[in-house]
Amino acid sequence: MPIQLALFIVIRDANIATARANIDEALQVTADVFFKSLTQHRDSLLAKVRALSSDYAFKPVANTNEHKTVLSTLISYQQRVEASVMLLLSMDGNIIADTSHPNLTARPFYLPQLIEQASNSEFGEADSIAFIDEQPYLLVVVPLFSPEPSHWIVMGFLITDSFAENLQKTTKSQVSILYGSTLRDINNQWQQLASTLPTETRLLSEQALTEQSWGFKKNFDLLMDQQHYISVVLPIQYQHDEYFIALLQRSLAQALLPYDQLHFIVATGFAIALLLLIVGGNFIARKITQPVTVLAQGAKRIEQGHYDLTIEVNQKDELGQLAKRFNAMAKGLAERAKIRSLLGKVVSPAIAEQLLSKGVELGGEERQVTILFSDIRNFTSLCETHDAKEVLTLLNQLLTRLSKIIDNHHGVIDKYIGDAVMALFGVPINDDLQAQNTVLAALAMQQELVLINLELVEQKFAAIGLGIGINSANVIAGNMGSATRLNYTVIGDGVNLSSRLEGLTKYYGVAILVSQSTKSQCKGIIFQEIDTVRVKGKQQGLTIYQPLGLLSDFSQTELAQIQQFEQVLKHYKQQNWQKSLALLTSLIAHSPVTVYQQIYLDRLRAQQGKVFDEGWDGIFTHSQK
Questions:
Q1: Rounded CA gap, 445 and 468, in Å?
Q2: What are phi and psi of 109, to 5 degrees?
Q3: Residue 210: is its pLDDT beyond 80?
Q4: Are 30 and 66 found together in one domain?
Q5: What is the CATH number of the domain that holds 444?
Q6: Which sign does the torsion angle of CA 591, 445, 556, 530 carry?
Q7: Do 427 and 534 fall into the same domain?
Q8: pLDDT of residue 354
Q9: What pLDDT was estimated at residue 335?
Q10: CB–CB of 567/579 below 8 Å?
Q11: Tell me, what's the pLDDT at 460?
Q12: E strand map for 121-201
């Protein structure tokens, strides 16, 4: 027990030191995250003002310089973007309209330094934290071009506790925004502008920050309400002897809470275990310990998948009977594993499990299923330049890697058709996220194809492509075939449509195409509309999309390009050929033209000069599969 006590104290001290070190490291990382998050807030605000500056409807209103008209427009836009204040200024800094002071006009702007900062900047834009009516705001200013700079647009958001809370969600630390008139005055009092701390703790942080010495971006201990907070101060803005700072903090007590709980659990468990050991240890050791240990070791081997074992317990009591049942169980598991292994090499493991658990019966049921068809491109030419054994080995390796991705996304392989794969999502096991899992699997397959091609080039093989078509539909799923030979599969019109979409990837030069029914079930994934088509054997039009990736992976510029192509399609469908062609030409001027963009270039050029046709539905008919 003295040794245990000494170890307990050493471990406790080590845990405290570890907690401090972890907090120190986390705060330094958090500081970088904080500045990035603050920059994103500023950029978001700038984007909203730039949008208004580029609004053709707003420019005529601004050029009237009419106070009521401009004020009404600013209030409308302010409500739409959820801003706190908006102003329109003349180029010489006079207020035309101010949503925070509706009656104020023809007066000099009360923050001239903001206009001066914008005038001296390269792009005529500026941002700052400043007070309006003794309230702190994050403000940005952007010029209005008509086409020459004619006005200043100012937008601001009030810095409140919710502002700090949003930053806390990103930084995972307590966040406080404070203001001080100067750092040279030792009697300077810091003023809380926004904070995630409890109300009573905020005043303590102001006082403690004033009384204690500290430096920017250096961790230090701040004692508040008898609790230690590991803190770091970040400078946000310094202008005219005014400091705006951010105080990031993490409670040492909260960081140690899991360790304290662990200490209590360890101490309690040790005491209980010691008592049980003294009372019943001798009896347990004599009669039960050895056979239980043997059984436990056998159970561990069973858990690891080793079923070929026999437990020997030379006792005629309940433990002896348990050992016999254990041996019988291991034998049954070994036979079942053998069947599952053999069956799993013929069909998907999920289908094999269903057949083993429910039995083999002919018949099916109507199910909502997402079907994926994939086909390897350029594989025929690959076969012509290599012998059959090399090609077969390569094909097996490719299908193994692609099939693993499908398995990892809860899909099952229905069949291999030469170098093509048909996979099912949502059967035989229900999956509420089947469409999303299918699209994510397709994107992962295309990412894996990049690695595969790098390896093929190293092995002197030609690079290959992969076309994927995806559709979600109600189909018949079940065991189909004869009484002596079954195949778990799906049939229905939705299956044929998936195959047609895979074929259309060649025509449009894209890797993946999905139907509207699949796209509508996917959240957080960005899609690019490609066309509205009639596939072979269908009369009804179908809108098809290309999945591009997760929303979080795209920049605002990339999202804007996607939206611009959507505008191209919108004007194309409205037979506004000239507008559609102008937008498409502008889009491809900044990046290489894609196959489907070239298709629309050809279509639009062919339509130039044609009159409006009320019978034209914008649907392109494909006569080939």
A1: 9
A2: -60, 135
A3: no
A4: no
A5: 3.30.70.1230
A6: positive
A7: yes
A8: 57
A9: 67
A10: no
A11: 80
A12: 126-132, 135-145, 149-158, 174-180, 191-195
Q: Which residues have CB under 8 Å from 69's CB, separation 6+?
A: 61
Based on C-alpha coordinates, what's the Rg of the chain?
35
- CA 367/CA 388 separation, integer angstroms: 40
* Interatomic CA distance for residues 361 and 428, integer angstroms: 14
Torsion sign (Cα): 14, 16, 17, 18: positive
Mean pLDDT for the stretch of residues 541-563? 92
**CB atoms near residue 620 (< 10 Å):** 13
Quick check: is 279 in a domain?
no
* Strands 620-621, 525-534: pairing kind: parallel
**pLDDT over 80 (residue 69):** yes
In this prediction the pTM is 0.47
Residue range(s) defining the domain that contains residue 102: 54-158
Q: How far apart are CA 459 and CA 443, in angstroms?
A: 25
> Does 179 share its domain with 309?
no
> Token digits for 483?
């009484």
Query: Is 203 in a helix, a strand, or coil?
Result: helix
pLDDT of residue 227: 79
Q: How confident is the model at residue 161 (pLDDT cuts 50, 70, 90)?
A: confident
From 32-36, 131-135, 213-217, 259-263, the region with the lowest mean pLDDT? 259-263
Q: Quick one: 152 and 167 in the same domain?
A: no
Which residue, 154, 151, 157, 140, is CA-closest to 74? 154
